[in-house]
């Protein structure tokens, strides 16, 4: 990256990535499902959360350090599991894992990683393994054992993908993976590479590989297969959060999959308060979908989350500058969070979680998009 043109926000990285990535790869990463209603609503809902800062607090030693799953982190952040990262840079997940290790946050490696899990582990940081339950039960449990054997710190079971949502950008593009990009952790067919007239080859591939018969019994099976902490990702209903606690999970991720599964699903930040109310400390609660700034992280903490997962901005950083670009995204997030915490009178994460918030309906009821977002729409892409 040109030092004189270094991005200073996630939106800056998005603009830069949009200018260099092939259109169909940009669409695959940036797009959502259906009319992308939930994709847009995630951002609008976050912008409707306003913080009530405290004053006359000593924030001279403001710290963003916290814990996730009982272990220390430099930020209350983990990376979201994003598939096929070599689409945007040859080093793919290995580079983002090194960036996460340098930032002192967990890297969540996807089942559909384009770099084998063992190479991700070599980055030297803390790694959680995201699990899709495959149609082959033995192969899936083999992934769990492999994650434990290679030194992963947790299993993150994604529970909101019985099949891939209808991502219209990919359908219109008839998107297929390039021949050199593969799901490196699983033995699979060539379906994801076979461009055809019926839509997304990646969606066809996941339909072949993932079971739509995923039920709560799988949680017990994972518990029997490993002693690693278990996280369920993709919950939005309080009833499911209560059931997750009954099954003894260690954490849940309140998530609508970044607007990529059910279009019309509630924004994650809107679902968070009610889930916090019913969980009552029974497990850790993380949040993803739409997180772009340190202020967003503070919003989530103030509404009861233990931390957040960040996805697309890291991929934009990876596309623009490889490991250095991904690292810069996390550096900016840390700077923004510390700035927001200090200005809100929060000396640490515990104080951040005591902040009060208010919602401003005018933001979600049609206020014009910020100039940066308007510019992105004009350019043919979306920041959300």
TrEMBL record:
<feature type="binding site">
    <location>
        <begin position="81"/>
        <end position="83"/>
    </location>
    <ligand>
        <name>FMN</name>
    </ligand>
</feature>
<dbReference type="InterPro" id="IPR012133">
    <property type="entry name" value="Alpha-hydoxy_acid_DH_FMN"/>
</dbReference>
<keyword id="KW-0288">FMN</keyword>
<protein>
    <submittedName>
        <fullName>4-hydroxymandelate oxidase</fullName>
        <ecNumber>1.1.3.46</ecNumber>
    </submittedName>
</protein>
<feature type="binding site">
    <location>
        <position position="257"/>
    </location>
    <ligand>
        <name>glyoxylate</name>
    </ligand>
</feature>
<feature type="binding site">
    <location>
        <position position="130"/>
    </location>
    <ligand>
        <name>FMN</name>
    </ligand>
</feature>
<comment type="similarity">
    <text>Belongs to the FMN-dependent alpha-hydroxy acid dehydrogenase family.</text>
</comment>
<keyword id="KW-0285">Flavoprotein</keyword>
<dbReference type="InterPro" id="IPR008259">
    <property type="entry name" value="FMN_hydac_DH_AS"/>
</dbReference>
<feature type="binding site">
    <location>
        <position position="260"/>
    </location>
    <ligand>
        <name>glyoxylate</name>
    </ligand>
</feature>
<keyword id="KW-0560">Oxidoreductase</keyword>
<feature type="binding site">
    <location>
        <position position="110"/>
    </location>
    <ligand>
        <name>FMN</name>
    </ligand>
</feature>
<feature type="binding site">
    <location>
        <position position="132"/>
    </location>
    <ligand>
        <name>glyoxylate</name>
    </ligand>
</feature>
<dbReference type="InterPro" id="IPR037396">
    <property type="entry name" value="FMN_HAD"/>
</dbReference>
<dbReference type="GO" id="GO:0016614">
    <property type="term" value="F:oxidoreductase activity, acting on CH-OH group of donors"/>
</dbReference>
<feature type="binding site">
    <location>
        <position position="233"/>
    </location>
    <ligand>
        <name>FMN</name>
    </ligand>
</feature>
<feature type="binding site">
    <location>
        <position position="167"/>
    </location>
    <ligand>
        <name>glyoxylate</name>
    </ligand>
</feature>
<feature type="binding site">
    <location>
        <position position="255"/>
    </location>
    <ligand>
        <name>FMN</name>
    </ligand>
</feature>
<dbReference type="GO" id="GO:0010181">
    <property type="term" value="F:FMN binding"/>
</dbReference>
<dbReference type="Pfam" id="PF01070">
    <property type="entry name" value="FMN_dh"/>
</dbReference>
<feature type="binding site">
    <location>
        <position position="158"/>
    </location>
    <ligand>
        <name>FMN</name>
    </ligand>
</feature>
<feature type="binding site">
    <location>
        <begin position="288"/>
        <end position="292"/>
    </location>
    <ligand>
        <name>FMN</name>
    </ligand>
</feature>
<feature type="domain" description="FMN hydroxy acid dehydrogenase">
    <location>
        <begin position="2"/>
        <end position="362"/>
    </location>
</feature>
<dbReference type="InterPro" id="IPR000262">
    <property type="entry name" value="FMN-dep_DH"/>
</dbReference>
<feature type="active site" description="Proton acceptor">
    <location>
        <position position="257"/>
    </location>
</feature>
<dbReference type="InterPro" id="IPR013785">
    <property type="entry name" value="Aldolase_TIM"/>
</dbReference>
<feature type="binding site">
    <location>
        <begin position="311"/>
        <end position="312"/>
    </location>
    <ligand>
        <name>FMN</name>
    </ligand>
</feature>
């Amino acid at each position: 990256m040109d030092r004189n043109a270094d991005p200073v926000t996630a939106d800056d990285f998005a603009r830069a990535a949009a200018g260099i990535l092939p259109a169909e790869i940009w669409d695959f990463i940036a797009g959502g499902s259906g009319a992308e209603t939930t994709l847009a609503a995630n951002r609008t809902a976050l912008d409707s959360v306003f913080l009530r800062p405290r004053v006359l607090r000593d924030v001279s030693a403001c710290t963003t350090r916290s814990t996730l799953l009982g272990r220390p982190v430099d930020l209350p952040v983990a990376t979201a599991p994003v598939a096929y990262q070599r689409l945007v840079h040859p080093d793919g997940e290995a580079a983002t894992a090194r960036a996460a290790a340098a930032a002192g946050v967990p890297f969540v490696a996807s089942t559909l990683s384009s770099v084998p899990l063992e190479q991700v582990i070599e980055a030297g940081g803390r790694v959680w393994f995201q699990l899709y339950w495959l149609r082959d039960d033995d192969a899936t449990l083999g992934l769990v054992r492999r994650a434990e054997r290679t030194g992963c710190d947790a299993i993150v079971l994604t529970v909101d993908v019985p099949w891939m949502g209808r991502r219209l950008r990919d359908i219109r593009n008839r998107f297929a993976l390039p021949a050199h990009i593969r799901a490196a952790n699983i033995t699979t067919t060539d379906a994801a590479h076979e461009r055809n007239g019926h839509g997304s080859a990646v969606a066809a591939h996941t339909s072949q590989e993932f079971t739509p018969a995923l039920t709560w019994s799988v949680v017990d099976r994972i518990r029997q297969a490993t002693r690693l902490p278990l996280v369920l990702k993709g919950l939005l209903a309080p009833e499911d959060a209560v059931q997750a606690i009954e099954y003894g999970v260690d954490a849940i991720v309140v998530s609508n999959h970044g607007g990529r599964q059910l279009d019309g699903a509630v924004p994650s930040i809107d679902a968070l308060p009610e889930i916090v109310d019913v969980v009552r400390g029974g497990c850790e609660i993380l949040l993803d979908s739409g997180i772009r700034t340190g202020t967003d992280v503070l919003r989530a903490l103030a509404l009861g989350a233990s931390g957040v997962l960040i996805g697309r901005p890291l991929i934009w950083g990876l596309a623009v500058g490889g490991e250095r670009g991904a690292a810069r995204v996390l550096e900016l997030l840390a700077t923004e969070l510390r700035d927001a915490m200090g200005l809100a009178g929060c000396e640490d994460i515990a104080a951040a979680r005591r902040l009060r918030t208010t919602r401003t309906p005018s933001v979600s009821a049609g206020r014009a998009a910020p100039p940066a977002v308007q510019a992105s729409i004009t350019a043919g892409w979306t920041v959300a």
